[in-house]
Design brief:
The complex is a heterodimer of chains A (357) and B (295). Chain A contains 15 helices and four strands. Chain A has 357 residues and is mainly alpha-helical. In chain A, strands 1-4 form a two-stranded antiparallel sheet. Chain A has a two-stranded antiparallel ribbon with strand order 2-3. In chain A, helix 2 crosses helix 11 and helix 3 crosses helix 10. The longest helix of chain A has 27 residues. Chain A is globular and about 65 Å long. The N and C termini of chain A lie far apart (50 Å). Chain B has one domain. Chain B is 74% helix and 3% strand. In chain B, a hairpin with a 2-residue loop joins strand 1 and strand 2. In chain B, helix 1 packs across helix 6. The relative contact order of chain B is 0.20. The chains are: A mainly alpha (357), B mainly alpha (295). Chains A and B meet through helix 5, helix 11 and helix 14 of A and helix 4, helix 9 and helix 11 of B.
Chain lengths: 357, 295
């Protein structure tokens, strides 16, 4: 267990705790950069997906994990980002313009949703965003002159400065975007803006009493979150080749929420853990099918069953997700014989009520 | 005019099913402040229990539905004991996600057991049509409406006149005060789950003749029932029924009134537009008095 002597207020908000941590991050980046050299194309495309889901998850994490607003409709932003980007590319707009345009459109939509969201909390907000996502899905389905409807919309292959990107180069592009996004989000969260998000999450009333503008904060959180999810959607479009309105449905929204919860609410590392978990779990189940006896292995509903079960188990036994579990393991190793389970005991508040009548 | 009446009745019948599922939502919400997103899937399970009893075990219709309702009550008790009692005191969001996970599990288990093809049963009133003057109504619709009216009356009597019903009302108003007054809160909460699951089973049984049963039937229906609960004001039992009727009628009249004229399906979207408008204009629903939250 290392202790850092803090001699400056800036040490509290620095991105890296000390040089050792910086070194670990540098090693991680080198490791991820070198992966395509050793791994086959399948794992490469899976890792690209991990990066893209991480970006989308980072968007949702800002909203759910840091501002405490629930969205059951983030698939809508994903699909709007994907479709806007693909349609602009089709019209001959370069990617450096079409991606920002897609993000802008998404954040505008996010602001519209947040106007509705300002009057509601908790469960009502979840339902409002769910209804919004359903409406977006139906619009994409029925506006076939622009989106191609149920026949699908072909996405142009990714290009950068006139060069066509193969899958390895696309892997690097996604990695770069993920790193920039993570840096920006971490920076945002350690700045006053991010602190207001946290204040609103922990208690709206006390945040308001401290002079935080609730309307501004919630709108901003929605806009940033929607823009990031839209960015992920735009990049995901290339990975999907064909866009269908059904590819972004209620289950996609729930998958994003699962990612954020299983990864660990309120932690940016949680997003990455969650994305790895959600992308690799189907592969793991497919491998397990061969090992399991036939009468279990051949069941069709094994995947949603496992997803649901794992979600429930995490929420009951480890609400802090993988990232929380990782923190516990690290502390266990750091304080080896002295670790006490009670350090992380959750405070239970019985009768925590949200209603007024 | 005949078409109008037929649409009206089938809209009301569909609305009654929404209302019954919404009733389950509201019951659980009032007792425990938990929002059970798996209510629609519990309805699906109740429908499948009935189908198995009648088609595979060759039971008579009435014993079968009573057995299915009781079985679902036990399932409700089991879920409360295993899952939701642990979630007391957690954030509403965590509870919502647990019920979403439960929905996944229930749907895939149902898919493993009963397959994904729509199943149906012979009811005593299948293929019977009732004639009121020039209006011809399928008996299934009328049975749904009648059963719902009876069930609502029973629920009202239960809450108004039985000791346990009054204890449930007290618990839903203030858990701590109810506890001090000597009400067995744990047992009341468990009973609310059992009751909600039983009502879900009734909704499922009534639904089978209208639509067939398949594992995903509860998902969209659950969302629409949720909309019904919101329209009625979450936390009001009569509100849930009326919200259900509103949703059912809006859906069927947009389907026949608008869809044919514009050339694409507006009716699917109408419910969601209704929820959004309702949440923006009057988030507390039609039937609850608004109060500001205090610190």
């Amino acid at each position: 267990m290392r202790f850092v002597l803090k001699t400056d207020y800036h040490h509290d908000v620095d991105i890296f705790r000390d040089r050792v941590q910086l070194g670990w991050y540098a090693a991680l980046i080198i490791f991820v950069l070198s992966l395509p050299i050793f791994w086959g194309t399948y794992l490469e495309s899976q890792l690209t997906l991990v990066f893209l889901w991480s970006i989308a998850g980072a968007g949702l994490m800002i909203l759910v994990g840091y501002t405490g607003l629930i969205s059951l409709g983030h698939a809508a932003f994903l699909s709007v980002g994907a479709y806007t980007h693909a349609i602009f590319l089709d019209l001959g707009v370069p990617p450096f313009t079409s991606i920002p345009l897609a993000m802008l459109l998404c954040s505008a939509l996010g602001v519209i949703v947040s106007i509705a969201a300002l009057r509601m909390t908790g469960i009502y907000l979840a339902i409002a965003t769910l209804a919004f996502a359903m409406i977006v899905e139906k619009i994409l389905k029925n506006w076939s002159s622009v989106t191609g409807g149920n026949t699908g919309f072909k996405v142009a292959s990714p290009e950068l400065f006139g060069w066509e990107l193969n899958s390895t180069l696309y892997y690097y592009v996604c990695l770069l975007v993920l790193m920039v996004v993570m840096l920006c989000v971490t920076n945002l969260l350690r700045a006053p803006t991010g602190r207001t998000f946290l204040a609103v999450r922990d208690s709206e009333i006390s945040a308001q009493a401290t002079g935080i503008n609730l309307i501004k904060t919630k709108t901003l959180a929605f806009a940033v979150s929607a823009a990031l999810t839209g960015l992920a959607g735009a990049l995901l479009a290339h990975q999907m080749h064909y866009l269908f309105p059904d590819s972004f449905n209620l289950f996609t929204s729930i998958k994003l929420l699962m990612l954020v919860i299983i990864g660990g609410l309120g932690s940016m590392w949680g997003v990455i853990f969650g994305a790895i978990f959600m992308t690799l779990l189907p592969d793991l189940i497919a491998t397990l099918r061969e090992w399991l006896p036939d009468f279990i292995g051949n069941l069709p509903g094994l995947e949603p069953f496992t997803f649901g079960l794992i979600l429930i188990l995490f929420l009951i036994f480890e609400p802090q997700g993988i990232s929380g579990r990782w923190q516990k393991i690290r502390l266990f190793i750091g304080q080896f014989p002295l670790y006490r389970k009670r350090t992380f005991r959750r405070q239970k508040s019985f009768l925590r009520t949200e209603r007024v009548h | 005019m005949e078409t109008f009446f037929q649409l009206l009745i089938s809209g009301i019948a569909q609305g009654c099913v929404y209302g019954l599922v919404a009733l389950g939502f509201v019951l659980i919400y009032k007792a425990t402040e938990m929002v059970n997103f798996a209510q629609g899937d519990m309805m699906m399970l109740g429908a499948f229990f009935t189908i198995t009893l009648i088609n595979d075990l060759n039971w008579e219709y009435f014993p079968a539905i009573i057995a299915a309702i009781l079985a679902m009550g036990v399932v409700g008790l089991f879920l409360e004991r295993v899952l939701f009692r642990r979630m007391i005191g957690e954030s509403p969001f965590a509870v919502l996600m647990v019920t979403i996970g439960l929905g996944y599990v229930l749907r895939s288990v149902a898919g493993m057991i009963w397959g994904h093809n729509p199943l149906s049963i012979e009811t005593p009133y299948t293929d019977i049509r009732l004639h009121f003057g020039t209006v011809v109504l399928p008996a299934a619709d009328v049975v749904v409406v009648a059963a719902t009216v009876v069930l609502c009356a029973l629920t009202y009597l239960f809450f108004r006149y039985t000791r346990f019903g009054v204890a449930m009302q007290a618990t839903s108003q203030n858990q701590l005060a109810a506890y001090y007054a000597g009400i067995p809160v744990k047992r009341v909460v468990a009973a609310s789950w059992a009751l909600a699951a039983a009502i879900a089973a009734i909704a499922g049984i009534l639904l089978i003749p209208l639509k067939s049963a398949y594992p995903e039937v509860g998902l969209v229906l659950g969302i629409k029932a949720f909309a019904a609960a919101i329209v009625g004001g979450f936390g009001s039992l009569p509100g849930a029924m009326i919200g259900g009727l509103v949703i059912g009628l809006v859906e069927i009249f947009t389907k026949y009134g608008i869809d044919g004229r514009v050339g694409f399906s507006v009716s699917d979207t109408s419910v969601y537009v209704l929820i959004l408008v309702m949440l923006i204009v009057r988030p507390s629903g039609i039937f609850t008095s608004t109060q500001r939250k205090k610190v």
